[in-house]
Amino acid sequence: MANPTPDPLWETASGHPDINNKTSHIANWRDFFIVGNTVYGGHGTFVAGILGAQTNNGIGIAGVDADVRINQVGGGSYAGIDEARGLGAEIINMSWRDPNGWNIALAGACANAYNSDILLVACMFNNITPTGNPYYPAAMPGVMAVGAVQKTGRLSDFSEYGSHISVVAPGGYSTDYFKDYKDINIYSTACDVRIDTTDVGGDPKESKYLLYDWHYTPTYKWWGGTSFATPYVTGVASLLKGYAKSKGIVLNNDDLRKIIELTSSGNGTRINDEYGYGLINARKAMDMLNAPWQLVKGKYVGCDYYSHAGVLSGFVPGSSDYLMASPRYEAIKKIQLPRYYTTAPQIWTRGAQSKGWTNDPTYSGSKKDCQIVDGTLTKNSDNVWECYLKTYTYKNMSGSYVPTNPLLAEFAYTALGVPQPPQMVSPSLREATASKAVPGTNYDLWFGWYYAWGCPTLERYEVQMHTDASSIWYTLRDDISPNALGWTIYDFGSVPSRLYLRMRAIHNDGYVTPWSNIVYIDSPNEDDPIVAESNTPEGTAYSNGKKIIVGSDGKIHAVFASGENVYYTSSLDDGETWTSPVTVGLGKRPAIELTSVNLPTICWNNGNRLYSTKMASGTFEEPQLIYTGPEGTEISYLAYVLDQNTNNSFLGWVDEGASGSSVLISTYNPSTSANLAPTPIDQGGADAFKSPSLALDKAGNLKIAWSHSGKVYYKDNSEFFEMGENGIHPIVDTYGDKTTVVWQEEIAPDIYQIVKKTKGINGWSDKQIISCPDGQNADFPVVAAAGQYVYSKNVKDGDYDLIYNCEYDNGWLMGTQNLSGAQGGISRYPSIAFKQEWPKSKLYVLWTEEMPTVKGGTKAIISLIKNYKMTVDPVPCNYIDVGTEEYNSYNLQKKGTYYYGPQPEYTIDYHQAELKYSIQNLDPAKKYRIKVVYYQETDANIKQTLTVDKTFNAKTTIKPKTVVTEEHWIPNSCLKDGQIEVTITKTIGEYAVCSVIALYEYDRDCDGKSTEDISGSNSKSTAAYSYELMQNYPNPNTGKTAIKYQLAQAGKVSLKIYNTLGQVVKTLVSQEQPAGLYNVTWDGRDNTGKAAANGVYFYRLESGSFKATKKMVILK
Q1: What is the distance between the alpha carbons of residues 831 and 843, in angstroms, rounded to a whole number?
Q2: How far apart are CA 969 and CA 363, in angstroms?
Q3: pLDDT tens for residues 1075-1087?
Q4: Does the domain at residues 530-872 carry the CATH identifier 2.130.10.10?
């Protein structure tokens, strides 16, 4: 066919109803191609529809970015790139290839567009048999090259590949325009073109004698090709650009590219030369501009140093092409990121905003560039992330630097990560006067925190507090130095009740972190019940061997040494009164365990010999010699653990000699008392070892921790791990799904702090400090229940007190209390026993208190074995912060996660219909209670149903921006196979949501009830900030009524029914309860089970200082 003459243009903006008003500039081009005598149109229209077809207009398709503005310019060469740049384009879609391949004009156009902060997106090109050869402009530096995938996610057969590919996007099955590959190709806007001709005379071979009549028909077609994968990427980039502008964020071309690559299916890792970084994900890309993610952009002027990097020979685009040979210089700059990230952030450079050129000889002198030096992103000792950047400058023929002197090079970068608030640790009250730390004394307030002290933008910290008396936070200080590691408030005043603290960091660029975790401080313990007297200051040494233990029957047992003897005693109540100690044998360093029937079995050493005994018929059997060490050695640091399911147990100890020592481990069965055949796990010189500590997990697997010449080690059946240096006296504990090792770490000569590491489902945590970082010595730590810590602390002069620290909710709630400060003395060698009970658990602490002086000034002649019982919150055996990737192994079904804040309750899983979780390795002989936390920020209430193994249905309503917690006993029938499936089903609202699932393990009779009763299940909302007793319903009633009440704080609760004479008719509640909303049902019967008569009754609620009374009427 003869070439047509100029004609009325097919204008995409006005020519297709689905992309009307999208185009602000119409270039002089026609949207068609010709095969033989047939004209086919629509390639550009097809691209434009994918990119920006209108939405919600009832026709056709929806474009990726319905708000995009399109400048139509001619494609196929550098001229279109230059024209688009001149029109102010921010993104250029290049669904074409240059038939001339690489050429200097195209290279210059791409470089100029990149330098102008334009994102260039080009198709990889199509071939029947892809070759891997580069096609241009896709292979130009600074261009984002896009490959195509099919509906299945498999690479399209026609899609080219190569090392320059960036990402892939939907491109369909076939590039054949003439076949209708419905549902497997791409569907978009198109146009049919027909050209009619009329002969007006003359030579029919000459086109000037033909009159052309153009006909364009808008339509839709199925088509495929990398040309059509490209506008998907361009559209996502446009969405990102516009969304960022709406949030006041400026995204440059490299920012757009990197965010799209990071959020593609490779998750920031390049897959291969076919897929690049993987299939794009628009939603994930947009989420990078929302919390918790934060973009931080910076620019440095001037390098730290530069060096000669060879001679460049390359082409420089310009009015004429010429070859340049110039000396090249590499300029290096070290940068520090201005935010605190707990995990490595993503960081990239922005070449268009930098001042320096690429190292590529083909494009040097034209394309700006800046790069990260590989492998240099690290976190320094101040918790600041830092790395090195590089760029290049050159000397021209006249000896001048281009584009600038390396000392004036500019380095632009962007960091993307999840900034974290400070993490408060180690709170402590230290007395501010010479008197002891008793209530009423003034205090210094100390604590530490984790943050990036060297952040270049960090300005100061703010600390707030409140007490049990008021839940309103007020600012304590807002001027804490950015370099402070702990601080003091003098004359803090008395501490009548629990103090709560939180903090946040304030940066000088306007960024303020979220609030940190919460720590609380209880007033010092005033009472230390005396268990026994001892004439040795090491009565309960050493802390690696248990000295106190509590049975499943609630009975407390203790052992200690005095003089040359080992003693046993037990409590007659709950730790207040103890039996007279009985001698079990000669020696020291005893350790105690209980058999499956709660009978004590004790091991100890005497010189180089180990002995054991067990109780039978109320008395202890004769001591049995179970091991004799080498002549001239002495046994120390005895540890003992027993598996109650099998009575199999392990002993660990050190054979200490002048010429060397060994850490020995042996199996042991208290029923047989056979001679031990220990296995050495480590050997060294004299005094090389401290504290072999043992623990057993649920499956009976042994965990061992010990120190060797200052290094702390951990070993189990699957790993051998060095925990840290400069450490002694490690203690290992297992509880639920966690293993914890705590130890003393030397920070100055003979000055130690207490640190720990915890192993969860994803491995070991970083080291964390437990003791207050105030430069005072701390020693002999112990741990129980994955977060209950006790250690000895030098609090003033030569005085050592026992300090209790705890952590809940993955460290978002921490607490501390001085346990032994009331009466003075040197408190050391603690041992602890944890008893999980409902609604409150108990922690029993035993220690030795050496009394150097008494009030009269006389010397004390004995040491005291002391005990303290603490009421603590129950500890979950499984704490699952389901809104984070760390706990994905529990998940069976979810759609994704939302982040509304760093606290566990603000990170949520969601699914449009139903969330599912699986929890395994449960003990069918135990009883379990489940706590589930919900939160959401949609525009309406969400109603959903919680089920466990489909055995019950608990319905809950979650209001927007309200934390809701519900708890339930799990029926025993669910536990027969040792696992449960938790399902949360949406009934009304946008999603099913969940923040936290916590599972608590108890003995079967922990609550004294065989079935759930009025306090067996409860639900609460954090909107409950006040105390309230509500009117019963119905009232009057026929003998059955419900009473609701609300608690602002946890505490002991009493709810009783009285008659008009003031006599108690029925006690409904008498127990510890957490804050929340409660609903109690009274069946109309008194404490003896008799039905109450008609008449007027009163019900009274008491909790702490709150008291309220209301009237009810029974009318049958």
Answers
A1: 10
A2: 69
A3: 777 888 898 999 8
A4: yes
